[in-house]
Amino acid sequence: MTVLPITAGILVAGGVYLLCHPSLVRIVFGITLLSHGANVVLLSAGVSAWRGEPLTGAGSPREAGDPLPMAFVLTAIVITLAVTVFMLALARVGRDDDTRHLPDTGEDHRA
Questions:
Q1: Does 73 reside within a domain?
Q2: 21: left (phi > 0), else alpha (psi -120 to 50), else beta?
Q3: Residue 40 covered by a domain
Q4: Statement: residue 1 has pLDDT above 80
Q5: Which residue(s) pair with 52 in the sheet?
Q6: Is 13 contained in some domain?
Q7: What is the domain count for the chain?
Q8: Who has greater pLDDT, 37 or 91?
Q9: Which residue in 15, 61, 17, 35 sits closest to 43, CA to CA?
Q10: In terms of residue numbers, what domain contains 10?
Q11: Are the C-beta atoms of residues 50 and 68 closer than 8 Å to each other?
Q12: Cα pseudo-dihedral 72, 73, 75, 78, rounded to 10
């Protein structure tokens, strides 16, 4: 049962690392990783270890999993996708996509 906390910790740590970079594209990916870490925490709140799948039609409702955290995660995934696409479009329009190169002027800058 330690897999979900370790996964959430790795996602959050990677997200915080990417947030420390000055590039907007890396910041967007950092926010995305943080969001996925929060989704893993929400899924672990559904106590999937000792409960079965929700809405299977078999078994008692007392033993079924809680569908509310799963609905929250599904909604969060859709919102994260929309925000990621929007922010990547802003990074592309703002020319902050790390593809700029300085033109070669023929001067040696190693003074």
A1: yes
A2: beta
A3: yes
A4: no
A5: 64
A6: yes
A7: 1
A8: 37
A9: 35
A10: 3-50+65-93
A11: no
A12: 170
